Amino acid sequence: MQTVSILRRAARALFSIAGAVVGAFALTLLVTAGAFAQQPASVNPTASSVNEQKLLEALGPQGNVGGRVTIPDARSRTLIQPEGRTYRAERDQSAKIGGLSILGILGLLVVFYLIRGKVRITGGRSGETMTRFGFMDRFAHWLTATSFLLLGFTGLNITFGRSLVLPVIGPDAFTALSQSGKFVHNYVSFAFLLGILLMFLMWAKDNFPALRDIRWFLQGGGLIGLGHPPAGRFNGGQKLIFWSVVLGGAAISFTGYILMFPFQWTDVAGMQWASVWHGILGLVLFAIIIAHIYIGSVGMEGAFEAMGSGEVDVKWAREHHSVWVEKVAAKSGKTAPAE
Ligand code: HEM
Fold it and tell me: Model's pTM, two decimal places?
């Protein structure tokens, strides 16, 4: 009798344990199924954020998408300025064209050198020299030249460094280079400005266009065709270089100072305009100057001395600046130096 009741109690305990296990299992199944039912197939964390198109449709009165700020500088309220994309596209495009024009001019000079070779003094030097540029002329030239080259190379690093220099020298060296380059680019601009001002004051009077410049261009400046067309102190090509440097340099400086003192004189659209034009003008002038450096150094026999010692061979002067040689002779009361 006692054995039967023990067996009954054990059977009841077994049933209740099995019931509990089955219940727990069923409950787990229910909860898991519920959780799975709530979970979307793929998680999209930005699903509830504002759609960009909606933001653009809600453009504020200045054409910007903005928020509210409590700091004094109200410009920081701008979140999206749609013209920024047009600006970036224009800047990238002009940088590409500028980069290609620099490569293009280098290529053209190599071809020119291979075909024409060095422009020689016909029949060699005379051995007699005359003064072409005094100390102040040469000081202004080399002040402009060194500052322009420093500005040019640091500017090229700002435009192309990330894609061309960074992969070669690595992030640490590139950071150091670019940081010091930025200081150079800012401060050397004042020396460049002084240089073009001095050049303008000393040389503008000899750089106004003259009728003989047309003939000079038609004859290829004596560089392409045969014979040397008459020219004053500066020939047609040099006048183009001079005004490119003076006017182009002034425009580059103007747009550069707008960038150096952000929002002092203009709004964001003005800053973008200055940035695009600073880049375009800088690259164009750099390409022009490459050609100038070539002809003032390896491209022409006897040219460098004009800016080196200031004394040039009389035969060189007669070939390239015949009208100027006559004028100098007339002023000094002598006849023109012999060839
Ligand atoms: C660094 C290399 C350079 C060399 C070797 C060089 C050489 C020369 C030479 C020899 C002249 C005198 C030409 C003559 O007597 O007829 C000259 C003139 C001149 N240079 Fe340079 N120059 C250099 C860089 C620059 C730079 C960077 C600029 C301006 C950004 C510049 C602007 C001028 C101007 C405006 C003239 C007068 C017009 C002309 O001759 O074309 N030069 N240069």
Answer: 0.80
